[in-house]
Design brief:
The structure holds two protein chains of two kinds. In chain A, 76% of the residues lie in helices and 0% in strands. By secondary structure, chain A is an all-alpha fold. The radius of gyration of chain A is 27 Å and the shape is extended. The two termini of chain A are 21 Å apart. By secondary structure, chain B is α/β, with parallel strands linked by helices. Chain B contains eleven helices and five strands. Chain B has a five-stranded parallel β-sheet, with helices on both faces. In chain B, helix 8 links the parallel strand 4 and strand 5. In chain B, helix 2 runs antiparallel to helix 11 and helix 4 runs parallel beside helix 10. Chain B is elongated. The chains are: A mainly alpha, B alpha/beta. Chains A and B meet through helix 2, helix 4 and helix 6 of A and helix 2, helix 4, helix 6, helix 8 and helix 9 of B.
Chain lengths: 207, 280
């Protein structure tokens, strides 16, 4: 095995072990690896983004697709935020203007069809095919109404609204609990995959 | 005068956290070293996902919009591998167009082949049956452009082959030419706009393969937007079972089951210990 292959195995193995050591202790080695990861990730993103900009922006412009030029110019204007003189920082607002307005237009344009209509039509659909389906749909409707009522802040949560918000709060707690459990399982699987990678790299196991 | 001896319950509560973590780590690794093949149940959502993909018509076009990256790799990769195996081995010759959400996403096929020792069927050809386009920039704006005019966002593939030279892309210009989006994802904000544009504006079904907190939000899209939904590495294990082979997903499921048993046992011991201590 040549020296390059040895380094390619041992450097990641050591870095992963230092990362996993955070489970037991917070120490400078772990913080160094964390910084290395953030810095490396940022460098990778910059290089990849530049390559994509060349592919989708600069190359087509050079081939005569000048309609892309304003996008590049307004994008470059964003960097005036970094100008040392405060007299020029306002120029970046023209870049942000495009980013915000296009973003808002796209979001609002697709929000009704993609989110609101879909969710609303399913939430109020309480007619099931089978008895179990019927039960599920009614339960979903109850969850929908009670959870929604929890977010009514213009009226004091007493009486019927109080009962509804209390039930809604329990449903929300269940939902967040499930979400948190799945998140933990994701972290678990990520850690396990790294441990497996180490064992594989060292030739201890093979899948 | 003799000293009062500590009960077993009090002693148990004095076990240092580090020792408990060490035991957890050993239990975690055990199934990797020694396959246990614990039983795996297949929920309806995974079965529906599996059946939907198998029943897709001949030559259907699937966009694999991946958010598989370093921080969710362990959870999503087994699921993605099992799904791609299912899609590429489908007798209906499904076409797979792969795009990434960000620069940090993992270049897929190489990783799958290197890590999972998984080969594509010999009759599948790059550019004809599958293609990899790299990542799109611009978040929601980028995705909206990809849906409206795919070739504007991706004039060439990841290896700089012009899109016109790729037979798989014949007749594919926008989201209206796609049949399905497979969407492994662990970021709720991303899921929102992917679905709004693809499903909201073009009516393309988006099969979500969620991990992490995203699974909670993704459930709201089942089954009308996503007709089936395997979740995380467990979903990968279930798909492996449905396809009749065992790989990393099964190992992860073994490990997770073992850890769950240990957690329940330790939880019971802690509750009983607390009760016994209060009683004494």
């Amino acid at each position: 095995m040549d020296i390059g292959a040895i380094i390619a195995i041992w450097v990641p193995v050591i870095l992963i072990l230092i990362s996993l050591s955070f489970m037991f202790v917070d120490w400078p080695g772990w913080r160094w690896v964390e910084t290395l990861l953030v810095g490396g990730g940022m460098g990778h993103s910059v290089v990849m983004t530049w390559g994509t900009l060349v592919r989708t922006g600069f190359k087509p412009i050079m081939q005569g697709n000048v309609i892309l030029l304003p996008g590049i110019i307004f994008g470059l204007l964003l960097y005036f935020r970094l100008h040392p003189s405060p007299n020029y920082k306002w120029i970046s607002r023209y870049g942000f203007l495009w980013v915000v307005s296009v973003g808002a237009g796209l979001s609002l344009g697709s929000l009704w069809q993609g989110n609101i209509l879909v969710f609303l039509s399913k939430a109020i659909d309480i007619v099931g095919v089978t008895p179990m389906d019927q039960f599920n749909k009614i339960l979903m409707f109850v969850i929908f109404v009670t959870c929604l009522s929890y977010f009514i802040f213009t009226k004091e949560h007493t009486g019927v609204l109080g009962v509804s918000t209390k039930i809604g709060r329990y449903f929300l707690m269940i939902a967040f609990g499930v979400g948190f459990a799945v998140l933990i399982s994701m972290y678990y699987n990520v850690a396990l995959e790294r441990i497996w990678w180490i064992l594989d790299a060292l030739g201890i196991v093979q899948i | 005068m003799s000293e009062k001896t500590e009960s077993i319950w009090v002693k148990l509560q004095k076990i240092p956290n580090t020792a408990i973590l060490a035991v957890f780590t050993i239990f975690m690794i055990l199934p990797v070293l020694l396959p246990l093949n614990l039983p795996i149940g297949v929920p309806v959502m995974t079965k529906e996902f599996h059946d939907y993909l198998l029943e897709m018509p001949e030559g259907s076009t699937i966009v694999f919009m991946s958010q598989l990256s370093g921080f969710n790799y362990g959870d999503l990769a087994p699921l993605c591998a099992a799904t791609l195996k299912l899609v590429t081995n489908s007798p209906n010759h499904l076409k797979v167009i792969m795009v990434f959400q960000s620069a940090g996403c993992v270049p897929f096929w190489d990783i799958m082949k290197n890590t999972y020792d998984w080969e594509l069927p010999p009759d599948r050809e790059y550019g004809v049956d599958y293609v990899e386009f790299g990542f799109f920039i611009g978040a929601e704006r980028g995705w909206a452009t990809t849906c409206d005019d795919f070739r504007a966002m991706f004039p060439s593939d990841r290896f700089d082959t012009p899109v016109e030279d790729l037979p798989i892309m014949d007749g594919i210009y926008s989201a209206s030419d796609w049949d399905l989006i497979l969407f492994p994802n662990s970021w709720t904000g991303l899921m929102d706009y992917i679905i709004r544009h693809a499903y909201g504006r073009y009516g393309v079904k988006v099969m979500i393969m969620p991990a992490g907190m995203c699974a909670m939000s993704a459930a709201a899209y089942y089954p009308h937007v996503s007709p089936g939904m395997p979740i995380g590495a467990g979903g990968g294990a279930q798909l492996e079972k449905l396809q009749g082979y065992k790989s990393w997903g099964t190992t992860v499921a073994d490990s997770f089951s073992l850890m769950s048993i240990l957690t329940v046992v330790l939880g019971c011991v802690a509750i009983i210990g607390d009760y016994m201590e209060r009683r004494s």
